[in-house]
Amino acid sequence: MTGPTRREAIAGGIALAASAGFSGATKAATMNDVLDTHDSLGLAALVKARKVSPTELLEAAIARAEALNPKFNFMAQKHYDYGRKAIAAGLPQGAFTGVPWLLKDLNTYIAGEVTENGSRLYKGQRAAVTSELVKRVERAGFVIFGKTTTPEFGLTGTTESVAMGPTRNPWNPAHIAGGSSGGAAAAVAAGVIPAAHATDGGGSIRIPASCCGLFGLKPSRGRVPMGPARTEGWGGMSVHHAVSRTVRDSAAILDATHGVEPGSRYGAPSPERPFLAEVGRDPGKLRVALMLVPFSGAPVDAQVLAATRDAAKLLEGLGHHVEEAAPKIDFASIGASSFALMASAVAADCVDRAKALGIELGPDVVERTTQDFITMGKGYTGMDYARGNNAYQAAAVAIAQFMERYDVILSPTLSAPPLPLGRIGLDTGRSMADWGREVGAFTAFTGIYNGTGQPSMSLPLGMSADGLPIGVMATGRYGEEALLFRLAGQVEKAAPWGARRPAI
After folding, report:
1. pLDDT band at 102 (very low <50, low <70, confident <90, very high)
2. How far, in whole angstroms, is CA 195 from its chain's centroid?
3. Are 80 and 102 in contact (CB under 8 A)?
């Protein structure tokens, strides 16, 4: 007869501590172990079994956030009392009842609470409505206790802002946590909670997942609600979901949040079964296109290439067919299109906000590169916007035709390991051209799939020689998150990453 597992021992310890009246210090240590050894579904199971209470989990997460935020700077807003009141009022019974949750501080709203979008221009802005996504998260039983940092308006691949300062990578605080969901990724990598809300308009789920050694899936366009204020962002490029330690958490969170919302312009196809049920299912023998050179032709770090080739060998060992291949698209038009769509949207929002406040846009309220985006956006015409949309539609057709021959495109997530802080922020004093070249080269693989609307995920499979995470990206056909979850579950089992944590 074998003894209890570590997880069983910890769970038993919780019950013992509660019944025996152990000291506060002992209970705090036990709760820290719980946060370290359980994913969100695991925490929910403990709550359901009455081995831990929602209040205990919330206070443990708050305590850990308070202890670690000074070092890594991932908290933008503290909604601690909001979370406490939600528990006191009684939580809905759902898949995640009693599990602490953090929202990203970007276009995601709780009526009456502050969302600042990483910008001084929105300082102190209180929401008039609650986002549909927030309602679904709370119906699933999550307890929201804060919002995480983002660069100004989510415009770059690092989370550094004048408003909030730099967010640091728990693996090495001198390096970026990625962006624009860097605060979410840093909080999860640091062990505050096992998963957190994230958004992705050009790679902003996958980039920080890669930088912080997490799993991050960008869903298909229209899969997760973005309203009610508006039901799409950046011309349909932006989507919402999460970063997480485990694949199953990501799948179950998507089960709790997906589905068309009132007024949505489009919706992703309904899944055949719950996404969580896909994790552990056999994906079959997949046809995998290995893409090692980005569409832009930007150079790729040798360690990143090695990690991606290792992932290809892993897939071959799992029975999949892998060959080097890549779609052909007009990248020059795609690059111009992304700026037309993003800059137009940023300019419209900032001009309208400044007008409502009765102020002028300038360096006291927006960052240097953001000002460049606003200037660019004011210069675009309606025809420029339409041409940008047309270019992305052409790319979507080209890649969809390519993927009639392949089930998955395997590539690096990023062209290099996490960069040092201060390189690709929005207020470095660099010209727009210089900033654009560097951030574009670093994130060369991710943005195309925002324009085409396909699901795409970063798998935490590699590590650099100096101990920084390297993600490998797998992209599926539009609407086929189920296939990606099957593949991700298979990879997670074959090459588990759960025990790989930063030394904090």
Report:
1. very high
2. 9
3. no
Q: Is 243 exposed, middle or buried (0-12, 13-18, 19+ CB in 10 A)?
A: buried
pTM score, whole prediction: 0.95
Strand partners, 147: 77, 103
pLDDT of residue 26: 59
Between CA 343 and CA 151 the distance in angstroms is 15
Confidence (pLDDT) at 335 = 86
pLDDT band at 65 (very low <50, low <70, confident <90, very high): very high
- CA pair distance 253, 168, nearest whole angstrom: 26
Distance CA 58, CA 56 (A): 6
Distance between CA atoms of residues 212 and 190, nearest Å:
9
Q: Is there a contact between 187 and 74 (Cβ–Cβ < 8 Å)?
A: yes
pLDDT (0 to 100) of residue 18: 40
CATH topology of domain 38-332+386-494: Amidase signature (AS) enzymes (3.90.1300)
**How many other CB atoms are there within 10 angstroms of residue 50's CB atom?**
10
Average of pLDDT values for 176-186? 99
Contacts made by residues 128-135, CB under 8 angstroms, sequence distance 24+: 129/228, 129/229, 131/225, 131/226, 131/227, 131/228, 131/229, 132/225, 132/226, 132/227, 132/228, 132/261, 133/108, 133/197, 133/224, 133/225, 133/226, 133/240, 133/257, 134/103, 134/108, 134/109, 134/110
Q: Which of 263, 262, 260, 282 is nearest to 271 (CA)?
A: 260
Q: Which amino acid is at 337?
A: S
Got the DSSP string for 328-380?
Answer: ---HHHHHHHHHHHHHHHHHHHHHHHHHHHT---STTTS-HHHHHHHHHHHH-
**Phi, psi of 435, deg, nearest 5:** -60, -45
Average per-residue pLDDT for the chain: 94
Beta carbons of 381 and 343 less than 8 angstroms apart: no
Q: Which residues are catalytic?
A: 104, 180, 204
**Calpha distance 128→147 (Å, rounded):** 17
Angle of the 302-317 helix axis to the 481-494 helix axis, nearest 10:
90
Check whether 412 has a pLDDT greater than 60: yes
Largest alpha-carbon pair distance within the chain? 74
Q: How far apart are CA 97 and CA 46, in angstroms?
A: 10
Q: Taken in order 375, 451, 271, 269, is the CA torsion positive or negative?
A: positive
Q: Is residue 263 very low, low, confident or very high in pLDDT (cuts 50, 70, 90)?
A: very high
Q: Is the dihedral of CA 465, 468, 469, 472 positive or negative?
A: negative
DSSP 56-101: HHHHHHHHHHHHHHHHH--EEEE-HHHHHHHHHH----STTTT-EE
Domain residues of the chain, as ranges?
38-332+386-494
